Fold:
Amino acid sequence: MKFIFDKNSFCCIAFSLVLTACGGGSGSGSTASPSTGSATTPTILGVVPGDQRISVAFNFIGGKVAALASLSSYASSYTATCTSSDGGSTGTATGNSPIAVTGLTNGKTYTCSVAAKNDSGTTLATSTASTSTIPNAGPFTSATVLGSTVNSTHITTYPGYASYCNYTNQTATGTGFVPTINYTSTTGVATTGTSQSTITCNGTTTRTITANALPDHISSTFFTNGLSGYTSSPYFSGNPNLIGAKTVSKTMPYTGTISGNYVVGTSGFHTSACYQKLAAGDTLASGCTLVSYAYLNNGVKVEPGTAETYVSTTRTYNVEGKNYYQDIGLDPSNAHNQPTVGGTSGTSFYGYYHYHGIPEGHVSRLGKGNATMTLVGFASDGFPIYARYGYTNRTNTTGGVSVMKANYRVRTAAEMTAAGYTDRPSTSVAPYGTFVQDWVFDPTGVNGDLDACNGRYGVTPESPTTAVYHYFMTDTYPYIGRCVWGTPESWGYTSSANN
Structure:
C-alpha cells in the first residue's frame, strides 16, 4: 500500500511513496508504532486577529511524518492559548491548524502559544510565543491593525444582492486598504501588488467575479519549508510555495434555482444526505451535484479537497485539509498555495492561493464583527456564501446571530466497516476524521443547522424580510460545502477550469 504524497504543493503534484509501516485496518492497531525519536515542538507561522478572536497557524508533525520518521512520541492534539499583557481575558482552544481562539477582549494585546499533547492530554512540547496582536471588531486600517468600530459602511454600500453587481474590493470596507502582497507573475518574475477584484452583472442573468487571484488580506508571509529536520524527502512538513497571480473570471447565475427535490424541513433545510461515501463509490441524491470549487468576492478560489491520499490495497482515501495526520501548510486564514507552475530556476514553486476553510483574514478585513452575517462569496450555482454566523431565528433578524453548526460527524468503527472502509491506516497514525471517507451527514445525531451542502433557508442582511437559500463556511467539517442543490456552472466541478 502507498501514500500519494505531494512534496511541493500539498494540493497538486503527487508522487507515490511505498510505506509498509503504516498498513492495517481501521482502528485495528495493526500499524507498526513509531519506535525511536521524540516529539517535535510546533512552530507558530502567524496570527490573524478578528472580533474577540485570533486565528493561530502552526507547523506540526502529524501521524504520517511521525511514522516515517519513527518518532517514539508525537502529538495527537494541539491546544492554542492566547494571553493578554494588558488585562484581556485569556482564551484557549484545541484543534487542527489553524486554531481559532475565541472569547478574547477586543482592544487588548495578546501573544499566543501552541502546546502539542498526547492521547492522555500530557503536554509534550510548547511553541515559543507568537508576535503580539490586538483583536477588534472593525476592519483593517492603513496601519494593518483592526479598527475598534464594526464596519457599517459595507452594510450600507451593499444592502442587497443586486448591489454586489458593483462590488470592488479596494473600497468595500470604506477604508480602501488592501495589503501589498509579494507574489510571482505568470512569467515567473517576483514582484509586489494588491488584490484586485470586481463583481459585475449581466442584467439579472449572470454575476461575474473578475480578479487577479491575490488575497486581500495578510497571507503568504506565513509559509515556510516546515519544521527543522523535516523539510526534505520523505517528510516535507509545511508548505514552501510562493504565491502566484493569474486572471480569474468566473460567471454564475444571478439568482440560484433550487432543485425541485429539495424539501425545506422545519429547521429550514433538506434533511437527506446529498452524497454518501461508500467503498463502491459516491451515491448521490437526486438534485444534488458534487462540486469542488467556489470563488469568494475577493476573487480567491475555495477548494475543500486536497490531492493528498492514502492508497490501500483496494481503494483510495482522500486526506481532509484540516487534520492531525499530515501538515498541509495552512496559514491563519485556512489557506495555502499550489505550485501550479515552476519558478524561473525550476526549483522555486509558486501557484494560486486558495482556502480550505473559513477565510479569517478576509472576514477581518471586511470588519463586520460577530454581531451580523458576513457575505464572502457566491457558489457556482449562484447562491450566496456566508462565513460562520447566521441569524439565530432564521425567519427574522431578531435575536442576533450564532455560530452555524454543520450536521456532519465522524463515523464509528462499526459504520466504517459497514461502509466497506476496513483498510484505512490505524487510528494511531490517522485518527478518525483524517479522511473524507471518515465523515457522514447525520442531522438527527448532530442536531446542527445546515443541510448536506452546508446550506439552509433563512433571512440574511441582504434579504432581511424574505427567507432565501444560502450556504455557510463553518468551523467544523465539511468547512466548505462539497455539493450544491442548485444548477452549478461547469467550472464548479471541472479541475482544468480552475488550475
